[in-house]
Amino acid sequence: MPIDENEFFRQMTVLICSSLDLETALQRSLHYFVKYMPVDSIFLHLYEKSLGAIRTITEVKAKETRTLEKITPLTREGRDSFEKPGVPNVRIVNRPELDPVIKKIAQSFNMPNSSALVMRLVIEGARLGSLTLTAEGRDRYTEEHARIFALLNEPFAIALSNALAYQQVLRLKDMLTDDNRYLNQELLRMSGDEIVGTDFGLKDVMEMVRKVAPLESPVLLLGETGAGKGVIASAIHYLSPRRTGSFITVNSGAIPETLIDSELFGHEKGAFTGAIEQKRGRFERANHGTIFLDEIGELPPHAQIRMLRVLQEKEIERVGGTKAIPVDIRIIAATHRNLQNMVREKQFREDLWFRINVFPIRVPPLRERKEDIPSLVYYFINKKMKQLKLPAAPELSPGAIDRLMTYHWPGNVRELENVVERELILNKGEPLTFRLLAGADVTSPPEMPAGLADEPSNLDQATTLHIQRALQKANGIVHGPGGAAAILGINPSTLRSKMKKLGIPYGRKRS
Fold this sequence. Notes:
By secondary structure, the protein is of the alpha/beta class. The protein has 3 domains: 5-166, Beta-Lactamase; 192-364, P-loop containing nucleotide triphosphate hydrolases (Rossmann fold, 3-Layer(aba) Sandwich); 368-502, Helicase, Ruva Protein, domain 3. 42% of the residues lie in helices and 16% in strands. It is built from 19 helices and 13 strands. The strands form 3 sheets. It has a 6-stranded antiparallel β-sheet, sandwiched between helices. It has a 5-stranded parallel β-sheet with strand order 8-9-12-7-13. A two-stranded antiparallel sheet has the order 10-11. α1 (5-16) runs antiparallel to α2 and α14 (373-388) packs across α16 (412-426). It is elongated and about 100 Å long. It starts with a helix and ends in a 9-residue tail after the last helix. Residues 439-454 have low confidence and may be disordered.
């Protein structure tokens, strides 16, 4: 039938470029091809020079499409036909047995009696692969078929190049997602899978965390600086369905006021002097994850207004942009300031306060949970030993734990961590004394209760002493109201396990 070459080229180019999915584009092309030439199948091959083989990646038929990874090794003659210059872009192969390449492919796909049109796909001088049309029977293709097929060399080559680049992007994206998941797991492991104090001073906090973590509600963490609000925020994220997403932390007080909009919401290229490219903000990076707004009370008024829009509309707008960008995020905020007083003094927006104060959790300061100090000291000693690459953990001197227990800890857990690190740096292989603790009695240990003059020298001994005190207070009772387990705030079976491990008698053995 007569053919309008311009119309044929335009229609085929539209079909070839209609999808980045090669199988979809080729199947659409096949349905148009059959109007002008015999076509039963379309094959897409990549030439693997290092293997000396053809890799068939796609087979398309009228009612069936297959993604393949079929390797067909070539003879020396076949490899030469691929690599030598001067070969026409389109070849007619009406007798497969006479062509060194098509013969191997016809055998591989069990098509010994088919005819083929083979197009070399070349872009910018680089050989990408081949596109092959096949039709059952001998002598099915003519020079006219080859001529109109050759019109499509450039569109098919560009489409293949784009599709391969797109597949590479998808592979890199999958690798990045996997790396991100791995790094999140590593960060969680490094920060400690178990929060120190869950059985004692942070027991009520962790109960609230477990209740709110599976939900989408905003959480407001209240507490003094250094009390561990960031650790609790991390726990909420990793216990939530968003654990595979990003956990983005923003220290609201550490970002200059002139840059806070750009940091939080991003900016468009040219939005201001120095904006040489588009930048995603923290909210966009937290999409499908959690954003932790530490010290939210430090946000300037204009940022509070934009924050309110994020909470209400679930969308942001980059600085210098006009397009609303939807974001799927969970917000966890934290502050050491009294936001209610700030609302009354017009320093913090009341409507924003109501939005973030959905589920407040107060993280107690260290002075209110001193029963956690022995465990925290043990945790920080082991953590800092690894960081400082120390050979062995030093013991605690008599009076060390009580010295730490009597200190007020204005800097909370962060101060305790720094104190332990400083003590380890200054240590000369002797037991740790903590006599340089700021504000503590550095001349002598505190007076010991009667009957407990032998101070423990390591954590196990300190834990043993702590449990023995609870048993003494409970008259030896482990389980039930007023028992040692209730006093210590742990499960009775957990307490018995610890006592067994430490060799503390209980029950009949104690008698």
